[in-house]
Amino acid sequence: MKIDSISSLGNMVENKGVHTQKGKTSFSEVLKDSIQKAGELEKEADQEAIKLAKMETQDIHSTMIAIEKADLTFQLMMQVRNKIINAYEEIMRMQV
């Protein structure tokens, strides 16, 4: 994950206080990309586990790292989903 420097924050401010960078993807595209990457990490972890089970590799460390990366990514994705659902429910409770 790339972290932008503080000097690039000036590009984020547009008119009327909206904070978006020009030329960047939308929130839904970021979510879709994150879900796709989580799926790829899960497939990679499955492949590493299969290699270890078939004795094609003896490197249990890389297998466990791949499995933990997939697990942590999934847990993070679920927490983000929960926060989005909570925000939606809070908005729906607001009286107009």
Helix residue percentage = 55-70%
Task: Give the C-alpha Rg.
Answer: 19 Å
Number of helices, counting only DSSP H or I runs of 4 residues or more? 2
The general outline is elongated
Question: Sheet bearing the most strands, described?
Answer: none
Write down the overall mean pLDDT. 83
Total number of strands: 0
How would you characterize this protein structure?
- There is one protein chain.
- By secondary structure, this protein is mainly alpha-helical.
- Helix content is 64%, strand content 0%.
- It is built from two helices and no strands.
- Helix 1 (27-53) runs antiparallel to helix 2.
- It is elongated.
- Residues 8-17 have low confidence and may be disordered.
Topology (elements, then pairings):
Blueprint: H1 27-53, H2 60-93
Helix pairs in contact: 1-2
Features:
64% helix; single chain; 2 helices; mainly alpha
Quick synopsis:
The chain is 64% helix and 0% strand.
